[in-house]
């Protein structure tokens, strides 16, 4: 048998001479890039190394000895080529071009870039060539567009270099910007020549970052003037919003103590990209509503209960309105006589401080901390360890998450500590840990570039993970087939090769049918199954009961589409799946994730580039907080609290006996607070369960029933209305710490601003409480905590504060001094005890609450691009609130028409648990019979409606399915 010769991997090179300097480069290298290698700078306007070269401005022309000059940004080097980059003739050509371009430019004193950041590239060239603006006649002008709240458009400053077009299309994949008009009237256009603020622009600011002139510039935010970078401090940090963890630089005005503007910076993951939240959503930290002093509830505001009309439910018409028990039966009948009672304020997006602050008095830190420690000690002494619980936060740093769980476990002897992973990816983690032995992703979002096929399921990444979605869109343009599976036709559907709009709650049936077809067609990877998996036969028997015809009846997806998806996936050389909370936030969430694990495993799509399993993490540090042990069943690095050897190791490290039993989860803690002998005292760090947890009426009763609640936060949240003590923390921007993104990238978040008033970093507050609990803690800085964490977390081995650098490191990482870390995990074995992927078959089960005649529609909840979690940060950001200021229910046009509702009218949405009122948005993205409500809006809190049934394994609530009715007011 003749051996097949492998194709040569040798890189062909060419040698050219540029301004007398010889350079050897790979074939295809442009003159511009080659010149840069030998230290020759060629001026450019349209070119930027982040975008594909187009050569439209001709500023970079060089003499190659041909009849016409060549654009260096697009012309490749040739062997033996002689290049002159700055002959008198070439320079004269550039000077004339600069003069022509300057003729229509605004005067320097009127140019929006020159008068702010002072980095107008055209003006810099004009200075270099001594070109003025008064030598040629000026046109009549093309106008300005100030319709976007944070971006200014000056068409007179535009040179039609198309950088903004390429930034929008080729990098972000939004396809908003093009050209309109002819001749002199040609200008950049948004959609069909709409004003920018009325177009489909998502305000990511990539065009501003790309623009070389004053045509696209940032507007000042919060009255802080934009100044040149050299007059500002640059602080490298990480975005505080979603799990993508984009690297950015804050430009800081130290005189005013404020951020002036933010820019994306290079990092292997985000590659200088940002979304609207990262680029423009940082001013929340300067809100006048920041907590700046410790607060203690006054005696006259006991018995406890909700303080504002919104939190009492007086404006929502929920089922508890007017009942004693809006405060859990503890509020008494004198609620209306409290100071700050409802003054008839219209429903709004923020807590009315005039309404709630009279119930508290300012205190010193010593008094507040002493009271916290004393009351929690008393409850612990009376009720035992089970009477105490803690909610941490995925917005806090790794170090703060680690210290918080350590305090609850060592100071109170309980594992009753959890955070919002319970509300987003707990079921994913349960399935991943069971199936592959790790709760982390097996590959990065950027690895989609190496995939032939990608399934994006139960996720709306254009809204929830916008920068990650830009990589998905780029991959599709390069040939990756995108299969999008979701009940909603979000904007991702517009970029998909196959869009599967299945009925909500039918994921198991759909993926079982895919596996049925893949097995029937013989598209499984038999070797991978035999050597890398267990329990395949049982899986095959289960999916045999799900032929496409049966699945079509369950899912609403036609059988031919199921067959097409199965064949497309099964025939792929490399395929990866990315999923979101549409998979996890179901009572069958763990089963949904089990199916995805099995789908990848039986086709061998794990452990190679372009393959794997990636649950897209929701909050900026939900991965890190989970890694650090902020969950009730695991110590740091997912080491079981009920494993004797593990517990003994942590007892030795922490110097105290530990509880051998798993603790209560977020949803179980809420339930326990309503039971005799249950949780009586809580420490709430950065969480707002009143808005984030399901069945708000139940949460209201539970919070009211607590004997003692301490809330540690940056704003007075809805949950803080039930607090006995409120501790003012620093925001993300006011402290140092590490954060782990969805890719497993551990990055440094650096202090940008000083804290307001007496606000303090969370880790310092936790340590002060720990000391009052008798713990001998003496951490001097977050780096001390990080060092201790790493010693106890094998996955983080070798990482040090000092070797994370400006771009962070992926874990696991054998040599962080020299490598970025592991992109693809499980190349030879899984992290399970036997090294195999454990395939767990699942049967389809219907959701717990189905529509009926009284509640005929299905509610799905989720996020908007501009907002974040419970809105406490984003609704205090000028840009984000200006773009998306009101709560809306998204409805199919026919559903709206059948109820006599029109776009923009107010409607009532009710479930068996509550009622809210909000505006109608007629949307073709919804299926008939389904509605979508974002959960960011306190005045129309979606979780008043949601059901608190939970997944039996991940203990995650069913946020994605409950029965509702929508009706006209």
Strand order of the largest sheet: 15-14-28-27-26-16-17
Whole-number radius of gyration? 29 Å
Helix content: 25-40%
- Low-confidence spans: 1-8, 317-347
Characterize the largest beta sheet: strand count, sense, and whether it forms a barrel: 7 strands, mixed
Question: What amount of the residues lies in strands?
Answer: 15-25%
Give the oligomer, counting copies of the same chain as homo and different chains as hetero: single chain
Please give the count of helices.
Answer: 29
- Secondary structure: number of strands: 38
Structural class: alpha/beta
| Mean model confidence by pLDDT | 92
Q: Alpha-carbon distance between the termini?
A: 80 Å
Which of globular, elongated, flat, extended, rod-shaped describes the shape? globular
What does this structure look like?
With 969 residues, the chain is α/β, with parallel strands linked by helices. 27% of the residues lie in helices and 16% in strands. It has 29 helices and 38 strands. A seven-stranded mixed sheet has the order 15-14-28-27-26-16-17. A six-stranded mixed β-barrel has the order 33-37-34-36-35-38. The chain has a five-stranded parallel sheet with strand order 20-19-18-22-23, sandwiched between helices. Helix 11 runs parallel beside helix 20. The protein is globular and about 90 Å long. The N and C termini lie far apart (80 Å). 57% of the residues are buried. Residues 1-8 and 317-347 have low confidence and may be disordered.
């Amino acid at each position: 048998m003749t051996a097949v010769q492998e194709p040569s991997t040798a890189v062909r090179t060419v040698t050219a001479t540029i301004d007398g300097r010889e350079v050897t480069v790979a074939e295809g290298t442009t003159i511009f890039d080659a010149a840069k290698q030998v230290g020759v700078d060629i001026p450019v306007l349209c070119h930027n190394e982040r975008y594909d070269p187009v050569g439209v401005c001709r500023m970079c022309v060089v003499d190659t000895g041909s009849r016409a000059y060549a654009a260096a940004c697009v012309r490749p080097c040739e062997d033996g080529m002689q290049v002159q980059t700055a002959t008198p003739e070439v320079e004269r050509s550039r000077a004339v071009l600069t003069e022509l371009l300057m003729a229509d430019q605004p005067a320097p004193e009127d140019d929006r870039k020159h008068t702010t950041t002072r980095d107008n590239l055209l003006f810099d060239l004009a200075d270099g060539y001594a070109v003025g603006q008064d030598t040629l006649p000026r046109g009549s002008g093309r106008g300005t567009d100030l319709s976007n709240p944070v971006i200014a458009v000056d068409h007179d400053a535009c040179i039609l270099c198309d950088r903004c077009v390429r930034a929008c299309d080729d990098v972000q994949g939004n396809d908003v910007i093009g050209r309109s008009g002819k001749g002199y009237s040609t200008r950049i256009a948004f959609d069909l020549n709409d004003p920018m603020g009325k177009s489909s622009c998502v305000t990511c600011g990539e065009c501003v970052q790309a623009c070389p002139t004053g045509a696209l510039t940032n507007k000042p935010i919060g009255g802080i003037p934009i100044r040149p970078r050299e007059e500002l401090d640059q602080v490298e940090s990480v975005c505080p919003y979603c799990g993508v963890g984009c690297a950015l630089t804050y430009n800081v005005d130290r005189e005013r103590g404020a951020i002036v503007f933010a820019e994306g910076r290079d990092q292997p993951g985000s590659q200088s990209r940002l979304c609207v939240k990262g680029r423009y959503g940082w001013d929340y930290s300067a809100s006048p509503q920041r907590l700046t002093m410790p607060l203690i509830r006054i005696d006259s505001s006991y018995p406890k209960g909700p303080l504002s009309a919104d939190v009492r439910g007086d404006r929502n018409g929920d089922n508890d309105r007017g009942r004693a028990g809006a405060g859990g039966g503890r509020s008494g009948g004198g609620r209306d006589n409290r100071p700050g009672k409802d003054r008839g304020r219209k429903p709004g997006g923020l807590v009315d401080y005039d309404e709630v602050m009279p119930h508290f008095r300012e205190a010193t830190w010593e008094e507040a901390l002493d009271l916290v420690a004393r009351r929690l000690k008393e409850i612990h002494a009376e009720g035992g360890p089970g009477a105490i619980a803690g909610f941490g936060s995925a917005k806090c740093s790794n170090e703060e998450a680690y210290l918080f769980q350590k305090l609850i476990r060592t100071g109170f002897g309980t594992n009753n500590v959890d955070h919002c992973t319970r509300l987003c990816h707990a079921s994913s983690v349960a399935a991943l840990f069971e199936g592959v032995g790790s709760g982390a992703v097996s590959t990065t979002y950027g690895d989609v570039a190496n995939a032939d096929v990608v399934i994006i399921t139960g996720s709306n990444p254009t809204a929830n993970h916008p920068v990650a979605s830009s990589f998905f869109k780029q991959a599709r343009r390069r040939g990756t087939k995108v299969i999008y599976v979701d009940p909603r036709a979000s904007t991702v559907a517009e970029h998909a090769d196959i869009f599967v709009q299945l009925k909500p709650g039918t994921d198991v049936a759909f993926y079982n049918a895919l596996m049925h077809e893949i097995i029937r067609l013989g598209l499984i990877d038999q070797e991978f199954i035999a050597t890398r998996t267990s329990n395949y036969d049982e899986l095959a028997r289960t999916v045999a009961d799900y032929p496409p015809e049966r699945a079509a009846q369950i899912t609403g997806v036609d059988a031919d589409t199921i067959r097409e998806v199965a064949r497309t996936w099964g025939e792929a050389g490399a395929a990866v799946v990315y999923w979101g909370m549409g998979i996890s936030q179901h009572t069958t969430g763990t089963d949904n994730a089990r199916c995805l694990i099995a789908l990848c495993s039986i086709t061998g799509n794990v452990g190679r580039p372009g393959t794997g399993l990636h649950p897209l993490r929701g909050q900026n540090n939900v991965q890190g907080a989970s890694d650090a042990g902020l969950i009730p069943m695991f110590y740091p690095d997912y080491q079981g609290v009920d494993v004797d050897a593990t517990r003994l190791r942590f007892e030795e490290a922490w110097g105290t006996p530990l509880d051998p039993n798993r603790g209560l989860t977020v949803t179980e803690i809420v339930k326990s607070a309503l039971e005799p002998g249950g949780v009586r005292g809580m420490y709430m760090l950065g969480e707002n369960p009143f808005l984030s947890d399901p069945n708000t009426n139940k949460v209201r009763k539970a919070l009211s029933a607590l004997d003692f609640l301490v809330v540690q936060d940056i704003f007075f949240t809805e949950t803080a209305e039930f607090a006995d003590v409120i501790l003012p923390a620093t925001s993300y921007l006011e402290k140092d710490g590490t954060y782990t993104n969805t890719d497993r990238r551990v990055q440094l978040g650096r202090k940008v601003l000083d804290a307001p008033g007496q606000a303090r970093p969370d880790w310092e507050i936790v340590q002060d409480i720990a000391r009052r609990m008798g713990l001998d803690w003496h951490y001097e800085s977050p780096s001390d905590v990080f060092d201790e964490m790493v010693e106890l977390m094998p996955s983080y081995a070798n990482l040090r504060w000092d070797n994370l650098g400006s771009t962070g490191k992926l874990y696991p990482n054998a040599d962080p001094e020299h490598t970025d870390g592991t992109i693809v995990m499980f190349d030879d074995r899984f992290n399970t005890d036997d090294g195999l992927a454990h395939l767990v078959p699942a049967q389809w089960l219907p959701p717990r609450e189905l529509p009926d005649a009284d509640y005929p529609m299905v509610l799905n909840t989720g996020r908007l691009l501009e907002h974040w979690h419970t809105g406490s940060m984003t609704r205090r950001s000028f840009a984000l609130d200006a773009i998306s200021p009101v709560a809306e229910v998204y409805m199919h046009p026919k559903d709206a028409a059948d109820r006599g509702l029109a776009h923009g009218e107010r409607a009532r949405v009710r479930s068996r648990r509550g009622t809210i009122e909000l505006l109608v948005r007629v949307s073709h993205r919804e299926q008939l019979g389904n509605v979508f409500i974002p959960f960011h809006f306190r005045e129309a809190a979606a979780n008043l409606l949601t059901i608190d049934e939970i997944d039996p394994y991940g203990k995650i609530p069913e946020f994605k399915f409950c029965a509702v009715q929508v009706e006209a007011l």
